[in-house]
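Regression test attached.
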Amino acid sequence: MKALVYHGIGQKHWEEKALPQIIEPTDAVVRIIKTTICGTDLHILKGDVPAVEKGRILGHEGIGIVESIGKSVRNINVGDKVIISCITVCGSCSYCKRQLYSHCNDGGWILGHKIDGTQAEQVRIPHADNSLHRLPEGINEEAALMLSDILPTGLEIGVINGKVQPGQTIALIGAGPVGLSALLASQFYSPAHIIMIDTDDNRLHVAQQFGANTIINPARQNVVETIKELTDGLGVDVAIECVGIPATFKICQDIITAGGYIANVGVHGKSVELHLEELWIKNITITTGLVNTSSTPMLLKSVQSGKISPEKLVTHRYPLSEIETAYEVFGNASQEKALKIVLTAE
Ligand SMILES: [Zn+2]
Ligand SMILES: [Zn+2]
């Protein structure tokens, strides 16, 4: 089969690899229908994730058809159309028993990281019963693909960790695919006012279409002053950080109201300043996390009923064999006006 293989910092190649095989009785092998590229894949290529070894097939998002199953797999059958969760779940370790699947002792985020991933014609999925979700008949495949990672991430690590409530004023910092996913998911909880902050006008425009009430571009506007005016000087109830740089984490600290929540979603490559000299008195909560994907079954129902339409995040489509071109486009996301790129196997 063909797969996208990591060959060290800045190097990847679409090349021939051996077909994956069942190794453990709990494994399944899935033939990919659609996959996509994540910002995390770009971090890997920059060398930010040293656990990824040369020769590793990248990718942790996908939908596909089950090709074969190990003899202990019970809930998934050959021929099932499934979402591949970015998080592998054994279901029985102490973390899994607390639904902290991202820290599973025999799973967590391993696809395209510690084991071969989904940017390939086929992929081996460990603990298939818990790590695959069968797709309902007739569901939009591109919407389902967004449930592998980004929509559960925006919901669980942004909206649920940030305890978004009806009537609140919330700010999302970063209108990339995960920030926009958090924007979509926040609307389950009916905040009164959603503010999106980003330096990219195209992404701000998309955020408006997705339901943001106010957009702020820090290149032209003073974020703190603008938010003070909007909130009678109080600040926002929830600030969801979806970028992962010191400047955006600073904005969260500057705009949060007393008793508020700062939910960090962004992947940080270096340390940030924590202004406890300002915040010690403000009764705020700061949360961090890696997605558990425990919300995926609920999100599937919401997609099926039309409550949420994450396929709106898809801006570009390519055949899977043109994945190297797709990486170039995704790497220039701002100029290309790219959010999620769908790669479809021929
Ligand atoms: Zn991802
Ligand atoms: Zn586990």
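Expected vs. actual: identical. DSSP finds 13 helices and 15 strands in the chain.
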